[in-house]
Amino acid sequence: MSQSAYQSLLERIREISLLGSINSTLHWDQETYLPKAGTVYRGDQMAYLSGRAHRLFTAAEVGEWLAEAAEAGLEPDSTEAVNVRWLKRDYDRATKLPTEFVEECTRTETIGNEAWAKARAASDFSIFAPHLKKLVDQARRRADYLGFEESRYDALLDLHEQGATTLAVSTLFDELAPALTELVAQGASACESLPVLLPEGPYPEALQKQFNAEVASAMGFSFESGRIDTTTHPFCTTLGPHDHRITNRYELDDFTSSLYCIMHETGHALYEMGLPADQYGLPCGSAVSLGVHESQSRLWENHIGRTLPFWEHWFHRACELFPQLKNSTPEKLWQHVNRVKRSFIRVEADEVTYDLHIILRFRLERALIEGDLEVDDLPAAWNQMFEELMGLKVEKDSQGCLQDIHWSFGGFGYFCTYSLGNINAAQLMESAHAIVPNLEQDLRTGQYGGMLNWLRENVHQAGMRQLPLDLINRATGAPVSPEAHLRHLADKVSIFV
Amino acid sequence: MSQSAYQSLLERIREISLLGSINSTLHWDQETYLPKAGTVYRGDQMAYLSGRAHRLFTAAEVGEWLAEAAEAGLEPDSTEAVNVRWLKRDYDRATKLPTEFVEECTRTETIGNEAWAKARAASDFSIFAPHLKKLVDQARRRADYLGFEESRYDALLDLHEQGATTLAVSTLFDELAPALTELVAQGASACESLPVLLPEGPYPEALQKQFNAEVASAMGFSFESGRIDTTTHPFCTTLGPHDHRITNRYELDDFTSSLYCIMHETGHALYEMGLPADQYGLPCGSAVSLGVHESQSRLWENHIGRTLPFWEHWFHRACELFPQLKNSTPEKLWQHVNRVKRSFIRVEADEVTYDLHIILRFRLERALIEGDLEVDDLPAAWNQMFEELMGLKVEKDSQGCLQDIHWSFGGFGYFCTYSLGNINAAQLMESAHAIVPNLEQDLRTGQYGGMLNWLRENVHQAGMRQLPLDLINRATGAPVSPEAHLRHLADKVSIFV
Question: CATH code at A111?
């Protein structure tokens, strides 16, 4: 009886995964190759598939199967139990929100997104403010529908990082912030007087692609089950259990920009490639959280890519492709890609300043959701907090609270996963250095197999079997803390001081 | 009541068209970009969508809506009547074949296709023969399920060219064959002594793409609603009412090979782009037949592209891109692309010899289906007939009856549409020369708007409102006949004699 309920559930999820993966393919095509005039019909195609997937998942029988399967007394750590547990969580979430509320949110977000684009272009917060009020109000109502114990913000956080609490994240960030502000001050002043460190371009696009493909392959990315295309904004997407696509963009005057995008997206792709393929679409075959996903991209990008051993190994090949580098050295490239500079725009921030951008957003959106900050007071609060954290005075809202798209589509509770990723990455990498045999030697010679295997065994293969905090704790033997990340950033600053 | 049945039908077809267009997108991706390891899951995705579309179309309520809508006394030429008429034809076809029979065919075709590939590689007909017997038997049973009046072959023909009969096609081909054999003899002997006419390559791929894109744009292909990618076998596919994709392949030693592929596929794409978008997926928004579709590709490729005026206009631009052409002339390129040469392989044939390959296949597959030829006797029959028609002795079956893939997946009744396309194209082009103002002048100056408009008005916009024979008759003022095509081929031969 319960076996049959579980089997019915598996079949349904298999169908929903087919629909989801097809939709991802359509979306990938839209971002890469879709002719402009095809956009409207593409929207119809995707809405049809999403609608069908949603109806299939929220159908009453799914609730019955879940209840029946759960009652069967499964072993708590078994594949079945893990799948049922998280599917039930998703089912409850999907059925708790009334259809009219979801439709209202979609409308508000569409209109809000347009208003945000106008507001940012004009650097005029008043254009966006009335929409942001509605978006905040909806986020609060969403939290009410979903339910929470301590804070409304917990409900939103849990949508992106299950098991995370507002209290835990703010404790981490409160520990991080003052130390970061100090490190940024040291790093930025030491880097101020540095000359330009990268030889002049152009670095031809075709050669950047060649170099990136070699690095991605060395990391373990398989072109048998993946590919790299070009888009405005780089991303990584999974179109099936053996189909992983990365996209990238190219700057002709700095090849390291596309290189670190590729290392970042390849980190994401390796996680997806390392999930158990026979559990594709099920919780046991899915990434556990955004914060863990981001740990994989940041680990490869920052802890492997932005190191001296990386450049000691790859410098020779880079010189073959880009002859102007012959006047440079591995050390200079290493310095170039770690340069510290205070800046207003998050997506352009270096590694040391980055988390300050996130902490700012976390504190402000928490205050908005918990009712401690009014939307009208947001620009002033942003500018004041930014100056305290970063030591820079915001001159206009387009480089302040209007810079990110996220809030305009209701994305509250998302930003902090970027910094959780950084914290997780540093803690994982410190452990890897202690545990993985010959890792130093491997990294100096461009051998990444040992590193990847360790990540596969300790992170990728688990799927959603453990909560993010437990996963990191088990992999590293210690609870999640910002200490490793702070040591790592202090090392980066010490390059220059 | 009947309006409501028709509306229900429209909604259902809209859903089926969404599924079909999504499947076309997945197929396009499979041919262009899909990583190898993604193939199996891609098969699952596509089978899921096809299965759902089939179930939605063959559902009992569709039959009821069709009956109800037909009984409403629609004007015979109205959009509603045309849509209902052809949808009923499709519905009857889809519901006449028992599910077990369709499944049996799929299995036989999968196995037959594998056997064919082995047989061709080994040039050993005995490997394929037992499978071909089953495939012929199934084709005969398919005809029995579908029903026919004169000949089983009529039923198969009608699947690809509605309204065409075995008698009518064989009459056309019997008129064509002896004249062609004569023209081929003249042309081939005149061309035998010609020197190499194209300057040596390489013709770089990127520059071929540039040239092809300019020609396709001049023809009227819109890159706002279409694109060109690279595949092993060129094709044209429609992924939505405003999304038309062409693919091509490149030979570095002859840029005209990819050029004529593009002109051919652009001809197909212009037809699809010219169908009424508001009827997308419905008969009034669909191409009427393969023979008419092929007329559009052949017209642009052969009647516009392989002419002296074409090269008089495009020679200058070709020289800019491929400087080695400066030692050539428009006349030499024109001769190069019209050279007549007897050959064994259909897909490599020139325009003058091409139809002989088709006539051979038509006669043989008709005989197989009508029971006048046994599979075991096929190689001998092929070789004898090929020598009579083409004047060449087949030495091995891999260059004879094993060369084409079509029969191995049960594709009987398809080949003749290629020659019907040639015949239609010639007749349309002769009329266009008589009717379209300033056409000579336009073609000499690379202006193709007048030509395209005439095709849109007389062919594209009609969708399936007229049968192919009626469509050509109405557009040209005369019943379909091979005379224009023979005059056209005689002109081609006269280049050399």
Answer: 1.20.58
